[in-house]
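[09:14] KT: can someone run the structure on this one? pasting the chain below
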Amino acid sequence: MSDQLAYLLDPILPLKIQEELYKLRKWEASSTSTLGTIHNGLSGMEELYKCLDDLLSLQSTQQAISHHQHEKWVEELLDESVSLLDVCCNTRDVISQFKENVGDLQSALRRRKGDLCIESSINNYIRSRKKMNKDAKKLLAAMKKMDNKAGASPLLDQNHQLSTVIRVLRDVNAMSISIFQSLVLFLSTPVLKSKPSRWSLVSKFMQKGVVSCEEKHENVEELENIDIALSKISSDRADLETMQIAHKGLGTLEVSIEGLDNGLECMFRDLIKTRASLLNIISH
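[09:31] RB: done, structure tokens below
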């Protein structure tokens, strides 16, 4: 068993938190960053944060943290909680705006009020996609910075229980970043066929801004098919089947984004609750 996972089996942790961390590590290793898998990851994070709340509610945990509340790692965890909330809020803003543009375009296609109305909605949709790419670069840069700073303070002279709690908190934060990163990458650019490290993929995206055609993953077809159909509609080459493809694709995308939006809302509440718990512990 690796040192990285050995602490997960420590008996002071509830069995449930061990299971949820293990499942999310498997998700992180195998996820292809589709809207469906990202939604599953958000659901897993909801369960993990429930377990974390139980851990922070334990009297032994609260005593261990409160006795070391002036150490640097406490400040780091609180700073990370603020950064995670910022990333979550900004990601929700991007999702919300995109969802609005998808809904407007779908309504325009359904009503068929005229070429000008449809063309305007298509242009708004395209602009929203371009804006997401710009916003994504900022979000990915912020997450990269957080990832580099995470766990900077060594755990010196800590008892075993406290060290375990700190590492769990750090792992939950790291997994949160991974979830946000997967979501932003999917909405910004097609997924690579190869399996590079997560941050090498981010670096490639940050440098190029786009991913080459050869690197597109089959799971981005739901976005590609919509783009192809909209291109035909804009150039007056759309038949009934093309209109149906665009309308159906947008409907599916809207439902998926709604699910992600709800998942992000739950995660935002969990992040708030975790930060409040930490603040309450160190204030006593």
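[09:33] KT: thanks! Confidence is low (pLDDT under 50) at residues 1-10, 190-196, 208-219.
[09:34] RB: yep, looked fine to me
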